Amino acid sequence: MPVVVVTDSSSCLDPELVGRYGIRVVPLHIIAAGRDLREGVDELPEDLSTVTTSGPSPAELTDAYTEALEASGGDGVVAVHLSRVLSGTWDAARHAAESLGDRIRLVDSRNTAMGSGFAVLEAVRAARAGADLVRVHDRAVEVAASARTLLVVDRLDHLRRGGRIGTATALLGTALAMKPVLHISDGKLVLREKTRTMTKAMAKLVDGAATDVGDEPLVAVHHRDAPDRARSLADQLAQRLPDGTEIIVSELDAVLGAHVGPGAVGVVVASAATGASGTSED
């Protein structure tokens, strides 16, 4: 049996791909009106402005890893999760993995959305090609390390409320009516530059992605309640990227959407080429 790959719902993977490759997805949680709801399992509220979020518990991850290990026939499990800086999921994953032994290998993607998702997909493809546990793990690390994520939000108060950026940065952006371009650096969401309009901010996303793109590019455009804006961004990217580059366009999951707010758009660029630079901690 091939190595089985596990991730969490922040990877924003297409359900069709999840089913096709047998990827195990552990849901993150939305807390709404006192109810603990599992993303992708329970019905979630449309209005996410007042919800809080949490990661899966160690028990949930232990169950997922155990089932995946059994499905692998003992060959092993590679679990790729969102940045430890952005969520407590990593700590829960470490706790769960420690109870199951060395056939569970963890990857901190230091990213989120398809910044994690591309690492998951390439790891699964390696497993299906016959790679052993170490090589599947290393493939996930390699692709995760190549990922670059850029994001622009309509308002910074959602990120401030969730603790993902500092209060001073949020107040500055709101007071000056800025459209800040953010990026993930070493697992943290930080300000890259400030722009005055969404049009200029999206142009910065295109420029940044086109600059970061490498060999065998993997590209995704994400949005939250902004499909037209996302399609416009994808069209602009297509003019700057190598011919034939596939651009995945998908909506951010509810947990990420609760933090970035409606109107947010972003782009993830990674590389499927071997020898991608950077490291990701196990």
Spans where pLDDT lies below 50 across 5 or more residues: 166-173, 277-281
The total of helices stands at: 10
Please state how the strands of the largest beta sheet are arranged side by side: 10-9-8-13-11-12
Q: Could you spell the SSE succession in H and E letters?
A: EHEEEEHEHEHHEHHEEHEHEHE
In whole angstroms, the N-to-C terminal distance is: 23 Å
> Please, how many domains?
2
Gross CATH architecture of the largest domain: 3-Layer(aba) Sandwich
Q: What do we call the CATH topology of the largest domain?
A: Rossmann fold
**Average pLDDT, all residues:** 88
- CATH hierarchy, class of the largest domain: Alpha Beta
Rg is: 18 Å
Strand content: 15-25%
Largest sheet geometry:
6 strands, mixed
Total number of beta strands? 13
Structural class: alpha/beta
Helical amount: 25-40%
Shape: globular
Describe what you observe in this structure:
- By secondary structure, the chain is α/β, with parallel strands linked by helices.
- It folds into two domains: about 140 residues, Rossmann fold; about 120 residues, Hypothetical Protein Tm841, Chain: A,domain 3 (2-Layer Sandwich), CATH 3.30.1180.10.
- It has ten helices and 13 strands.
- The strands form three sheets. The chain has a six-stranded mixed beta sheet with strand order 10-9-8-13-11-12, with helices on both faces.
- The protein is globular and about 55 Å long.
- InterPro entries: DegV, DegV_C, DegV_domain_contain.
- GO terms for molecular function: lipid binding.
- This is Degv family protein.
